[in-house]
Amino acid sequence: MTEITDSIGCITRFAPSPTGHLHIGGARTALLCWAFAKANGGKFVLRIEDTDQTRSSESSMRGILEDMGWLGIEWDEGPELSFDGKALGGDPRSVGPFFQAQRLELYNTHIRTLIEAGKAYPAFETPEVLDAARKEAIAAKTGYKYNRAGLEISLADRIARMDAGEAHVVRLKMPDEAITVHDAILGDVTVEPSEFDDFIIRKRDGFPTYHLAVVVDDALMGVTHVLRGQEHLINTPRHIAIQRALGFDTPSYGHMPLIFNPDGSKMSKRDKDKLAKKAVKEQKIESCPIEGVNDEDFAKWLKDKTRQLASDDLIALAKVLGITLPEIDVEDFRRAGYLPGALNNYLALLGWNPKVKNEDGTDLEHFDMDYLGSHFTMGGMSKGQSKFDRVKLMSFNGDAIAALSDEAFASIWFAWAQQYDAELAGRFDEAAMLTLAPAVKTRCKTLADGRNIVGFALVADDSIVYDGKAVHKALIKGEKKGLELLMGFRSVLETMDDFTPEAIEAAVKDYAESQEVGMGKLAQPLRVSATGAAVSPPLGQTLAILGKEAVVRRIDLCEAFVEKQASAAS
Ligand code: GLU
To answer: Rounded to whole angstroms, how far apart are CA atoms 244 and 117?
Structure first.
């Protein structure tokens, strides 16, 4: 029953808790659940596990949905979201709502059934009493287990006290038997009864625990296959115990390897704060250098390893510190300018391998969502740790960017800049980005990188920093001086009406010929005067993007720079 067979009619689900951004590990889980459902003609359900009301937030929930929409991991059933002209979610089988906080009655009905059948019971000890027992067990080194005192009260009395409103938790009466998880990835994992105690299925505040809610939801939503991270393996025997108590089928389980940093540490949301704390200490910063966080909270954050700054504060702090934070959440990768296709492709490989060879004998690694959604099989899942290789991801992304048409690149780059780089979007409209596309898309690994390639156009003309060496080489050195050629060409420039890359290239060629020099003799001085440096995208695009007036102004500024250098030297 519990072997995962890639069966038709399967239902998988992704069940994030909306307590922050979508972590890259969560995205990997969602992606492979989606792929399994698609490859088997099944359905993929999205459920929001928001029973921890203190940690859940509406904005996190929305962020998670949007990150999934952006990745193209589209759910068939779940919360509704209009994204990119598509309508995701809905409740065609009437198994919703898809927010656990709206399903409390359902959980309570099932808890009641368990209590009346004697399979679960209310327990009335106060937290203080339980704490004392726990401390005693620790002191005696015996290991703590709940003593089942609640079971000593008769069934009728238990129910009467509970119904009268006495504070209590509800515990599952664990059967005295070993439980085996038949894991599709890890094989059989058996837990002996001595490892269990009567764990809580409903808390004192009346909310079900995760264990109860997840089991009821999976059953009522018809989930046949649960694919999730290995951190949940420890919970699965408990889930099986609840399923048995409620007479539910046990879905097939597969627990995926955790994702680690290359240094072997777990890839965690805290990595960003860790790096920022290190930089603050190294730079000996004592008071908070950003707005919105007071010095006291800043000091607390700095001291406490577990404290995290809000995402926007952390980004602002990183900017002040001059550091780049590691990308951990999907939102980080979006901001850095990764393409969803490349990210999905790389994420799928963190735990799955198509085990197919390319024609040249190498392993097939590059594929798109269509391929993944039609070729995914559980047989390709690996047991071992997954290491997050940023260099490999970046190379996937660079390849994906370079493969875009100029039009697609311009449209994606512009949309990205509108969201994450207002200065860039303010400087170039989509048409300008289209002019730049051939030069930029082959040179950048991320969309954010693209900014560096055109950085010369983002600074004011009089703020250009001239590289002294480049100026010397291109404008001062040699027989026929670059500066003379440049100033001669300046007059030609002024008369040009058509200032497209092609017209510029043609004018440079003609003028160089008329002066009997190679094109480079004129192109380099022009490039250096316009950008300050010896390297830039092709000259025609570089000048076209600046516009004629700016190019002429920069030539004059460069001439002044040369003169200043000459007078300083004499
Ligand atoms: N809400 C749980 C989490 O975010 C889901 C666990 C599960 O998939 O069962 O980790």
So the answer is: 13
